[in-house]
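Q: What structure does this chain adopt?
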Amino acid sequence: MESRNSSRMVTEFIILGFGDLKELSPLLFLLFGTIYLATICGNLLLVALVITQQGLRTPMYFFLVNLSCLEICYTSNIVPRMLVDLLRENGVISMVGCIIQLYFFGALGSTECYLLAVMSYDRYLAVCWPLHYPTLMHRALCGGLVIASWLSGFIVAAAFQAAMVSSLNFCGDNEIDHFFCDLKPLQKLSCSDPYLVNLVCMNLTALVTLAPFGLTLVSYWRILSVILHITSETGRQKSFSTCSSHLVVVTLFYGTLILVYAVPLAGQVPAVNKTFSLLYTIVTPMCNPLVYSLKNRDVKEALRKLWI
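A:
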């Protein structure tokens, strides 16, 4: 009997979530629910402002609208189900549902990596080449960069990754020690040889995170070098404050992704993975509209006009 049970094919998974903190489930539900609502409202507000206010029709805010739409989809792929699972005993999800969630997580996460790199390049041109900026960052280029970011995330990286994972066989334990269907916990449950999937996914991780992160760091390094040569102390401090806040959020997003997906499977601790995953699935989507736009003078002025 035990042999038959261990060899049965898995058709559904049980997401353990924060099972070791079961007594804190109501508090976690309130906390994550509040953050989710703040994320949705903040990003929707930014989209509404850019659409309705003529003064915000610039390349920077065009990229920010795409980022806000992406963050709404990204966090909505994970958080609502996680909130439901906090209120019930077993977070059961079908095999198909798990693969779909994994696909959209990978697709939207990959798109965000590319889009953040595009935004850093946009800021590099605006700060380092201000006179040529309107000519360099024209409408066609803006649209092409955004389309390329979305297509790269959905077609190249995530689709291949999800296809590789869906080819794995699951015939034993079906409990996912995470709060959503993530790649690493699924690999641990597979009873087939995960070597090829590990190799492909690590290469994709390098392509999706390390390359855009490197471009982002280079762009901000060039921006900082220009800021340090600003003669006005007030202007230098203002520019440095804005640039450093952007860099902190970007580093938080890329850094946690790299730590989770670049570290070998055998050396990972589930509790640490969950903590890092909370940062890039819940915290950064809430912080992005605040850091990138809602603290800007142009956005504050647009908000004032909206309420008058």
